[in-house]
Amino acid sequence: MSGSPSPSPLVGWDDVAAVAPDGLAVLDCAGRFVRLNPAAVALCGAGEEAELLGTPAPFALVAGGATCQAGLLEYQSDEQVAHWMPASGTRREFAYRARRLPADPTFTIVSFRDVTDERHRQRRIAAIAQTSIALAAEGSLGSTLDAVAQQIVQADGLAGAQILILDGTGRELRLMGSAGLRHWDAFLDRLLECQDRGARLSMLDALREREPIVVPHRWAQILADPAWAPLHAYLGELNWDSFVSVPLMARGRPEGVLNAYFAPGQEIGGRTLEFLAAMAEQAALAVDYAALLQREREGARRNERQRLARDLHDSIVQQVFSIGMQANAVGVLGARGGPVPAEAVRAFAEEIGALSQTVRADLRAMVHELRPSSSTRLGLEDAVSALVKSTENRTGLAIRLLYGKEVTDVEPELAEDMYRIVAEAIHNVVKHAEATTVTIRLGVRDHTLTASVRDDGRGLPEPGGEGRRTAGTGWDHGYGLTTMRERAERWGGTMRIRAGTKSGTTVRIVIPLPVRVPELPPTASDGSRSNPPAVPLRQAPGPAPSAC
Question: What is the pTM for the complete model shown?
Answer without folding.
Answer: 0.45
